[in-house]
Fold:
Amino acid sequence: MRLVATELVPKGQGGSIPLHHSKPHTWINMMYQFALESAQVSKLSDWLIEHDKSCKFYDDGTTPVSPTGAIGGRLTYEFTPTSLGTVSVVKCACGESINLTDYKSW
Ligand SMILES: [Zn+2]
Structure:
C-alpha cells in the first residue's frame, strides 16, 4: 500500500525545483505529492493499534458523538522536505506523534 498526499501550489512555470527551494509565486500548475511507502504505512498501523488503546480521541463507537467531532480529523500527516530527504511525521489530536521518516533512504 502506498499512501499519497497531494498539495496544490500557486501557478508558476513548473519544473523540478526541489521543494525546499520554493518559489511559490512563479510556478504553473504544479503540485506536490508526498508518499508513505509500505514499510512506513505498516509502522503507522502498528503504532495506531497500540495508541488507540489509550488515546482519548479514539472513537470506539460507544459514544453518541465522536471525540474528534462529526467529520473526524484525528490524524495530521506532516511532510517536511529537506536537502537530504523528507521528514514524515503523523500527529494525533491528543498531541502524540510517530516519526515515520525513512532515514535509510537519505
Ligand atoms: Zn491520540
The chain is about 15% helix and 25% strand. The chain has one domain: 3-105. The two ends are 21 Å apart (CA to CA). Residues 51, 55, 57, 92, 94, 96 surround zinc ion (CB under 6 Å).
